[in-house]
Amino acid sequence: MAGTIAGEPGGDGGPGxxxxxxARRRGPVGFGERCLALALCAxxxxxxxxxxxxxxxxxxxxxxxxxxxxxxxxxxxxxxPCATCGMTTAFACAAHGDLVGSARVQPFGFLLSLLVxxxxxxxxxxxxxxxxxxxxxxxxxxxxxxxxxxxxxLAAWAYKMVTWQG
Length: 166
What we know:
Order of helices and strands: HHHHHHH
Helix content: 55-70%
Strand content: under 5%
Distance between the termini: 76 Å
Shape: flat
């Protein structure tokens, strides 16, 4: 049978039927998605605003104590940093425009601060315009990406262990 795909009943190994792919333009996201994007944007802006309000600790950790939180129990118990030690300081450095200092203090915190800033812009764009940018961003959240992020967190923890001056 001419025009069928090899392996199909009656297939002769020739080219299969030609199928046209029609790109469909979809309209903007709905009101609910825009509200969700606005909430995400607001959460990111609040997080970055709090970081900007904080004064980065010169020790490279402990900035969170300005929020009334206790010192890191892990660091106090073991004399070594926990996996997230320096994250708040890294966010505060980044919010103050000290990107090099942020990366030096806690590389994964630096990466997260950039992701939060990008998410604020992207979510704000979706909320304001109805763009489908968020759908593309969500498709990036795969198990492989999650495993990669955990690997980066562990690498940053190892870096923090080496540079720790508790």
